[in-house]
């Protein structure tokens, strides 16, 4: 399973997702949008999601922190 998490500095929801992945020793790619407005704008346009984090699993957009929590509860991420 390939996980990518698009984040910004000082985002508590980003920290929550990353903490879960780190605590459970799940490998993921962290993409920091803090200093990359162009990438952030193109990501918002592509996903229709205007907040961070933005989580992708196997190159498919699955949503933000709430959606990630739902996947964890359903044992889709372990």
Task: Give a description of the structure.
It is a single chain. It is built from 3 helices and 4 strands. It has helices at residues 12-23, 37-47, 65-73, and strands spanning 3-7, 29-32, 54-57, 60-63. Strands 2-1-3-4 form a 4-stranded mixed sheet. It is globular, with a radius of gyration of 12 Å. The N and C termini lie close together (10 Å). Belongs to the glutaredoxin family. InterPro entries: GLR_AS, Glutaredoxin, Glutaredoxin_subgr, Thioredoxin-like_sf. One of its GO terms (cellular component) is cytoplasm.
Content-based structural category: alpha+beta
What oligomeric arrangement do these chains adopt? Answer: single chain
Radius of gyration over alpha carbons?
12 Å
User: Which regions contain 5 or more consecutive residues with pLDDT less than 50?
Assistant: none
Q: DSSP strand (E) fraction?
A: 15-25%
Give the helices and strands, then pairings:
Layout: E1 3-7, H1 12-23, E2 29-32, H2 37-47, E3 54-57, E4 60-63, H3 65-73
Parallel strand pairs: 1-2
Antiparallel strand pairs: 1-3, 3-4
Domain Glutaredoxin: 3-62
Organism: Halobacteriovorax marinus
Family: Belongs to the glutaredoxin family.
Concise summary:
The chain has 78 residues and is of the alpha+beta class. It is built from three helices and four strands. The protein has a four-stranded mixed sheet.
Considering the chains and any ligands shown, give keywords for the structure:
single chain, 78 residues, alpha+beta, Glutaredoxin, 3 helices, 4 strands
